[in-house]
# Entry
Amino acid sequence: MAQLTYRDAVAAGMAQEMRRDPNVVLLGEDVAAAGGVFKATVGLLDEFGAKRVKDTPISEQAIVGAAMGAAMTGLRPVVDLMFSDFFAVCWDIVANQIAKTRYMTDGQVTLPLVIRSANGAGSRFGAQHSQSVENWAMTIPGLKIVAPAFPGDVKGMLAAAIRDEDPVLFFEQKSLYATKGEVPDGEHVIELGKANVIREGTDVTIVALALMVPRALKAAEMLQEQHGINATVIDLRSLVPLDTQTILREVAKTGRLVTVEENPRLCGWGAEISSIVAEELFWDLDGPIVRVTTPHIPLAAANNLEDAQLPNPERIVASVRQLVD
Amino acid sequence: MNVLMPQLGETVAEGTVANWHKKVGDSVIADEIICDIETDKVSMEIPSPGAGVITKILVPAGTTVEVGTVLAVIESGASASAGAAATKSAAPAPQPPAAATEAPPPSWYAAMPPAMSEAKEQYTPQASTSSAAPTQLAVASTGGPQAAARDTHQRLSPAVRRLAAEHRLDLAAVSGSGRNGRITRRNVVEFIQTRQTTAQAAAPVAPVVAHAPTAAASAPAAPTAAAPTPATRAPIPGPAPASAPAQLGTSVPFTRIRRLTAEHMVRSKVTSPHVLQAVEVDFQRVDQVRKTVRDAWKAKHGYSLTYLPFIGNAVCRALLDYPHLNSSVQGDALLLHPQVNLAIAVDLGAEGLVAPVIKAAEKLSVAQLADAIADIAQRSRANRLKPDDFAGGTYTLSNSGTFGTLITAPIINQPQVAILSTDGVRKKPVVIETSEGDAIAIRPVGVLAQSFDHRAVDGAYSAAFLDRVRKLLETSHWVIDV
# Structure
């Protein structure tokens, strides 16, 4: 077990799979010589060579289009899209082509590709480079959505995404790149679609994703120490497939649900989970379902404004207290 | 925490605080008995819903109040010193609505720029759900303890509703620890656990509805429970005393149970035109089987096998054939009950008379009925009957036989339409008709006398029923499994 940063875990996961399968290739802007804009692919060019680790021109459409073609013809490409905001220029290929190919070819053509991107706020990149776009992607049938919070999960889930026969959008939270955590040595694969109960409580179940996971965990500690409220915290890790079994099981135990989302409020993933829980667990609920989200506004670049926009432990604590008191 | 007058039975609407074991300023722990409640023919102890200090006693001893009324207020936690308690009871200031402090708009909403105003308006109701609810609660609870108690019942979460339904709880007995006294799921779960613990400790505390009534039981109100209870009790109607010299004789005040019995008897006589019919029954066959199993029964069950379970068994079987006697008069109709809930009059000596009910007695064998009768008689005398033990009776047996009475004209147990008195069984010379001529034999003979409500049935119907009971007792091949 090694202590790795989140960004090193990306490289570790890539390297593990590139060693295992020669069909795995990496392409993106500055992924090769520069080791990635976020330094998440350092060392890959040296180990695997320019044929498998390719720098591309600045055209996100071209990158994902090339990846689609490569996947159709037998490779297992991994795209580094850099900022997830750039999905906006890629939706035709991602949403209209990649997501639908297996269905429209009656399963004859599968697309085992991964699109990695640096998602979310917290690093003062402003409105066009800080968005949490997982809820954009979640609305498109045919895409798997993964967003780990911890280095160990980054390595294991990236490996699983690369081995998956279908397109996976792998969201790395850019403000977590510098965080450290334990990463198992050797081959490490985590099945997609399994949420992780990282704290077990009795009073309320908090469901979070990516950057919101450590904040929810911090909030749970504050709730316990300052208010005697014992919270369960679930790290979703994957939105599609969604681990509804774990969510429903844990919410049934506490009777209360709070979702913590970084994406803007309207139609965020928490709304979907609220809907599922309300439908499946109505008679187990002991209070209204509460969503904590970023407001429905473009994100600010200024430190204080961005901090005010994102859910933080204090806001989570306040929301939970209002529900549980 | 509010201490409420618990729901004491399906049909019981009020109870009387008999006496307080605690006074304002006393500390109590959870489940400590704080007062006694009387209702109809039951008295029970009320445990504290939690630990704290009694800050208010709102219903003095001797006062009758409706179910759900707040009897006392217990303040939990360290803040509840006796001194603070006294201050608070003097000035019961309701909590301010506190909308501004407790329910700020969600920050995302406040931060929304003007460009989003359209979306903001559309989204306001949903967005503010979690913050608006407490405000409404706070406003609603300013009406004082009673209002708060009502609100508690209006705002139950789905989980609480489901638990209450599954465990057939009366939530009036559950104290809420949530915002503004709201009952949380944990409160209910802990209440259920406490109740089980208490029940195991054999304390006669059951501030809950013990079981759902059968279809039959839910229809007629329990006899005395149905009595209207004006705030100030009217005197029991009767002939005015004939200017008796006041100082002669000794006045014995009615006990509560004596008063209730008196009220009920008068009401029954006013309500139902009573007709008495009686048959003489030869208990030869019953006696034979009783003698056969007598010692073994006594050894196993600890009591003697009497005539009563045999009579009860015959009555139940006959009632299935004469259902109009297992009924209630409701307006212009006779409500026939689908099962026989057999009320058994039990004499408590100086304490009065009660008539606990054996539900679905027609499904019981003689032996099972004997056990059921022994059980309710024993619990009656131990004062351990629950309110619902009195609910839902459809026919009553009154047994004066142990005193060797010849015949008794019983008063109907309302809202039933008939009651059977079992009188003394004595050995008598009886003419036996055989094919070889008549003979005289010595047989155990007793009278069964039924009072029936002539509104419900006529004499021929009642007589046919009695004849069926007699034939069943005289001709059945009784088999008793000891």
The first helix of chain A runs from residue 6 to 20.
